[in-house]
Automatic annotation (TrEMBL):
Residues covered by the EAL domain: 23-275
Protein name: cyclic-guanylate-specific phosphodiesterase
High-level lineage: Bacteria, Pseudomonadati, Pseudomonadota, Gammaproteobacteria, Enterobacterales
Domain of life: Bacteria
Organism expressing this protein natively: Pantoea latae
Length: 276
C-alpha cells in the first residue's frame, strides 16, 4: 500500500512538472509568436436562416515553428491566465478589421464575429480599441460582432453588462457563446443586452438520437423567440443535424457540414463557389 501511495505521488508530481513546463513554454513562446507574426486568423462561415452567408467567425491559430498548428483550445486558457489575451485579442480585432476592409476592396461584404473572453472585457481596452480602429477605418457602421461566454457575466457582471451595451451602441451585435453549458438560467436572458445565443455544440452532437437534447433545444428556442433573440446552432456536421435545426426554428447555422474554419483568401474562393 505504501509503494502504491508513493507511485501515485510520483505520477502527480510528474503531471505537475509537465504542467509547469507547459506553462513556461507557452510563457516564452506565445509572447514571441505574437511579436513575430506567427499567429493567424481563420474564418468559418455562418449561414443565416435563408442560407445566405453574411458573416464569419474569426478563430485564431498559432503556426508554431516548433509544434506546427497549435489549437486555440491549447493556448487561449493560458493567455487568459497570464493576461496575454489582452494584446492577443487586440491583434485579432485589428487583423479582422483589416481583413474586412481588404474583402470590401474585392467586393466581398462580410461581417465578422470575434471571440472575446472575460479577462478582455474586464480590461475594457478591447472596446476603446475597436472604437478607435473604426473611426480610423472610415467605415460608416461597425462590421464586427462580439461572441462572449457566460463566464464574462460572473466576474464583474455590472461592468460586463455596461460594455455589452456599449458594443451594441457601436453597432456590434453581441452573441452569447456556448449557451447551455454554463450556469446562467433561461430567465437571466431577459436582462442581458444580447442579440443572439449560440447553442453549444454539445446540444447538436447526435441530436437525432438525443430526445432530451431535442426538448432542450425546443425550449431554448421558444424562450429566445419570446425575448426576440436570434438562435444560432454551431457544430452542425451532418444533414440530419441541419434538418433538425431548420425544423425547430433555429435562425443561424455553422459547422463542418458547411465549411471548416479557413484562411481568409480561401474563404474568398469558398464564397464564390457557394452563392446564396
Ligand atoms: P468557440 O468560440 O466555441 O468556437 C467553436 C469551435 O468549434 C472552434 O474551435 C471551431 O473550429 C470548432 N468547430 C466549428 N464547427 C465545428 C463542427 O462542425 N464540429 C466540430 N467538432 N467543431 C467545430 P477552435 O477554432 O479550435 O477554437 C476553440 C475555442 O478557442 C473557441 O471556441 C473560442 O472559445 C477560443 N478562441 C478561438 N479564437 C479566439 C480568439 O481570437 N479570442 C478568444 N478569446 N478566444 C478564441
Ligand atoms: Ca465562438
Ligand atoms: Ca461556441
Ligand atoms: Ca467553446
Amino acid at each position: 500500500a505504501k509503494e502504491n501511495g508513493r507511485g501515485k505521488f510520483c505520477v502527480f508530481a510528474a503531471e505537475m512538472n509537465q504542467r509547469v513546463f507547459e506553462y513556461l513554454w507557452l510563457d516564452t513562446n506565445l509572447r514571441k509568436a505574437l511579436e513575430q507574426d506567427h499567429l493567424t486568423v481563420f474564418y468559418q462561415p455562418k449561414l443565416d436562416s435563408d442560407g445566405v452567408v453574411r458573416s464569419a467567425e474569426a478563430l485564431v491559430r498559432w503556426n508554431s515553428p516548433e509544434r506546427g498548428m497549435v489549437s486555440p483550445a491549447d493556448f487561449i486558457p493560458y493567455a487568459e491566465e497570464s493576461g496575454l489575451i489582452v494584446p492577443l485579442g487586440r491583434w485579432v480585432m485589428l487583423t479582422v478589421l483589416r481583413q474586412i476592409l481588404a474583402w470590401r476592396e474585392q467586393g466581398i461584404n462580410l461581417r465578422v464575429a470575434v471571440n472575446v473572453s472575460a479577462r478582455q472585457l474586464i480590461d475594457q481596452s478591447i472596446y476603446s480599441d475597436l472604437k478607435l480602429a473604426l473611426m480610423d477605418s472610415g467605415l460608416a457602421e461597425c462590421p464586427i460582432d462580439i461572441e462572449l461566454t457566460e463566464s464574462c457575466l460572473i466576474e464583474n457582471e455590472a461592468q460586463a453588462l455596461t460594455l455589452m451595451k456599449q458594443f451594441q451602441e457601436l453597432g456590434a451585435q453581441v452573441h452569447l457563446d456556448d449557451f447551455g453549458t454554463g450556469y446562467s438560467s433561461l430567465s437571466q436572458l431577459a436582462r442581458v443586452p444580447i442579440n443572439a445565443i449560440k447553442l453549444d455544440q454539445s446540444f447538436i452532437r447526435n441530436i437525432n438520437e438525443q430526445p432530451v437534447s431535442q426538448s432542450l433545444v425546443r425550449a431554448i428556442v421558444a424562450v429566445a423567440k419570446a425575448l426576440t433573440l436570434q438562435v444560432i446552432a454551431e457544430g452542425i456536421e451532418t444533414k440530419a443535424e441541419e434538418e433538425f435545426v431548420l425544423l425547430n426554428g433555429v435562425d443561424g447555422r455553422q459547422g463542418y457540414f458547411y465549411a471548416k474554419p479557413m484562411p481568409a483568401e480561401q474563404l474568398g474562393h469558398w464564397l464564390a463557389k457557394h452563392p446564396a
